[in-house]
Design goal:
With 97 residues, the chain is an alpha+beta fold. It has two helices and four strands, in the order βαββαβ. The chain has one domain: Alpha-Beta Plaits. The chain starts with a strand and ends in a 5-residue tail after the last strand. The mean pLDDT is 92.
């Protein structure tokens, strides 16, 4: 089992959720307004007058077999509009109930 945190420009919301649905990743938690900035490129997303755009975030737990497919699909979304921004981070889940 892997945990995946996906941070993305709000414009990507429908594409990200559709990707989760298509890959049968049913359970997730959605954070609608998430402020931040990328570590290398991209504009800050602060929701202010100067930096008006905002990010959202999703955290989901998926089977190991789905991780590569999900990351490839998310990368394609990001590459379709690189200036918007999308990143996904994966870590191992040791235990859950």
């Amino acid at each position: 089992m892997k945990g995946i945190f996906i941070a993305f420009d709000q414009a990507h919301k429908d594409a990200v959720i559709s990707t989760l649905d298509r890959l049968n990743c049913r359970g997730f938690s959605f954070i609608e307004q998430l402020q931040g900035r990328g570590s290398k490129t991209g504009e800050p997303h602060y929701g202010t007058h100067a930096w008006a755009s905002m990010n959202s975030g999703i955290i989901t737990m998926v089977d190991d077999a789905i991780v590569d497919k999900l990351l490839a699909a998310l990368k394609a979304i990001d590459e379709s509009a690189e200036m918007l921004g999308l990143r996904a981070f994966v870590w191992s889940i040791e235990q859950y109930y």
